[in-house]
Amino acid sequence: MNEPVLTADAVHVVRDGNTLLVNVSLTVRPGEHWALLGPNGAGRTTLLSLLGARLHPTRGRVEVIGHRLGHTDLRALRSHIGHVDPRHPLSSSPRLRDVVLTGVTNTVERPPRWEPTREQRDRAEELIATLGLTYRAGARWSTLSQGERGRALIARALMPAPRLLLLDEPATGLDLPGREQLLTALDTLAAAHPRLATVLVTHHLEELPTATSHALLLRGGRPLAQGPVADVLTGELVGACFGMPLALTRADGRWTVRAELGGQTVESWTRLSRSSSSEPWHSAAPPSASSSSSPTASAWLPPSPSPDCSSSTSNTASRKPATTPGCADSSATPHASDRWPRPPWSSSWGSD
Q1: Which pTM does this prediction carry?
Q2: How many CB atoms lie within 10 A of CB 204?
Q3: Among 186, 248, 234, 223, which residue's Cα sits nearest to residue 36?
Q4: Burial classification of residue 343, based on how many CB atoms lie within 10 Å of its CB (0-12 exposed, 13-18 middle, 19 or more buried)
């Protein structure tokens, strides 16, 4: 059985009159490792809150580990989800192993007069070792580096043996060694727990572990593309997501990104991307291939959040398609780079 660990179907979120998510669909299965990518304000953290049973959708359906939000006890459901937030609000300075043990009680601090069982202590020590922190297990929280704290919080989230691990920008504030230790630990974790599913929020591709298998690109609260990383993490799609021409390189499973501005300054591109409508997703059509002017980023973003699942795919049959949001059968969906208009700097603009 490979039943989904979580499913979001046509989800919309509106809060205080502000639309935060529009028509977002996502399915995560055991052993998959997803990245939620997008610029600030794209809706990544809002979506993660939905997946972590911390927020209800305004419209649409969310099921987490077989439980539908709105039809289950959220507090009980959260105990089966590992949620890692680097802004863990500790008011004291407990020892690292005691912070990990609070994953059993799902509390910020260790409850008074509560004592873990021998099995719980052993599991905590095992996870501390897996995350490479045995040498710091007895250290006070205030003496730990940001990277050590991040890895300790991952160990804490894994204490109840969840089927789903959610990571909200886990590399925030880390220096280079701290980031590399974190990513190594996440890859070790994926190898040690092959059925564990993870969803990681970031806007830096350099922060993706090598085990990352799938990606969802969000912009303005709407899905741009999703599917296997080989299909989704391309210069064209990620450039469309962030509103800047980008070149992506992957080596040994790790990503690097650089801007391709064609001689223009970052300032000029920023001015162009802000000069048009604040709702770029409603642009009617991509720019003409013969246009000599430099279009704004909004000119070539998807015109609608609703995909056309009935279109012919004869010209993409030889390529493995990425899943277009909202289509029930991904095999009938055009390739990710064909589903959306190509950016104007693409060498293949206007061709198959």
Answers
A1: 0.73
A2: 13
A3: 223
A4: buried
Give me the phi and psi of 318, to 5 degrees please.
Answer: -85, -5
The C-alpha atoms of residue 61 and residue 10 are separated, in whole angstroms, by 7
How far does CA 4 lie from the centroid of its chain?
17
Taking the CA of residue 313 as centre, how many other CA atoms within 13 Å lie in the half-sphere pointing to its CB?
Answer: 21
Q: Which of 25, 7, 8, 5 is nearest to 65 (CA)?
A: 5
Residue 59: strand, helix, or coil: strand
Start-end of H helices in the chain:
44-51, 74-78, 96-105, 118-130, 146-157, 176-192, 229-232, 235-242, 266-274, 336-339
Q: Could you report the per-residue pLDDT of 75-132, keeping only the tens digit for each?
A: 777 777 888 877 777 778 899 999 999 988 888 888 888 899 999 999 999 999 988 8
Whose CA is closest to 306, among 222, 214, 236? 222
DSSP string for 113-140: T----HHHHHHHHHHHHHTT-GGGTTSB
Kindly state the tokens that stand for 210. Answer: 């090598």
